[in-house]
Design a protein that fits this description.
It is built from 4 helices and 7 strands, in the order H-H-E-E-E-H-H-E-E-E-E. By secondary structure, it is an alpha+beta fold. Strand 6 and strand 7 form a beta hairpin. This is M24 family metallopeptidase.
């Protein structure tokens, strides 16, 4: 099985444009997040942004996790009724399609001035950057990237979520190619095809952070 197979209409430049447009949508949603909003309301608000930004379709539903729900993976349901406070943490995870190519981006943000929340959000970004740098500079396999991420997260003082292993993207729908998890890839992932997902949690408190992006050269 070719885990990096793509469709006949796949175009690397279109992948990069989908990534760029996905990030623009995510930050527009962030700009509209306000204390008091619930996760369902945030997802409904996101749908309005999608329409304005010309999103062709979704390849996975938008995910907004707030507060203690930031420790949940995409397969786990949120505790209901959680609303964003003035001193809180949340993340946004989007899977969008533009011009037949998939984007997948996610980032964590803190409201207020809570140092633990701010540190957690920043740690997810920093860990992503360190793992992506190891991929670019050392040519690590997908499996080795997640082994590296585990060690780095522990050294930084955070719990690493081992249920998150990254995945393929491509021309829609990438799922027909059965690329599998990045964390089980024995070879070096090619640029522009694989999403590196990072999810961490505070070692003792009920909150965490998430960051994901396409691995690009």
């Amino acid at each position: 099985m070719n885990r990096e197979a793509v469709g006949r209409r796949f175009d690397a430049a279109s992948m990069l444009r989908a990534r760029e447009r996905s990030w623009a949508v995510l930050h527009e949603i962030r700009a509209r997040m306000r204390p008091g909003i619930g996760e369902d309301e945030a997802q409904a608000m996101a749908a309005g942004v999608f329409a304005q930004r010309g999103v062709e379709r979704l390849w996975h539903p938008p995910i907004v996790r707030i507060g203690s729900n930031t420790t949940r993976t995409y397969r786990q349901r949120s505790d209901p009724g959680v609303r964003l406070s003035e001193d809180d943490i949340y993340f946004i995870d989007l899977g969008l399609v533009f011009d037949g190519h998939e984007g997948d981006v996610g980032e964590t943000f803190a409201t207020g001035e809570s140092r633990p929340h701010l540190a957690c959000a920043q740690a997810a970004r920093t860990l992503f950057d360190e793992v992506a740098r190891a991929w670019r500079n050392e040519g690590l396999s997908g499996r080795a990237l997640y082994e590296f991420a585990t060690v780095q997260a522990q050294a930084m003082g955070w719990r690493f979520n081992h249920a998150i292993k990254g995945h393929r993207l491509g021309d829609y729908p990438h799922s027909v190619h059965k690329g599998g998890d990045l964390g089980s890839l024995e070879g070096t992932p090619s640029p522009g095809l694989w999403v590196l997902e990072i999810q961490i949690a505070h070692p003792t408190e009920p909150f965490g952070a998430f960051y994901e992006d396409l691995l690009v050269g």
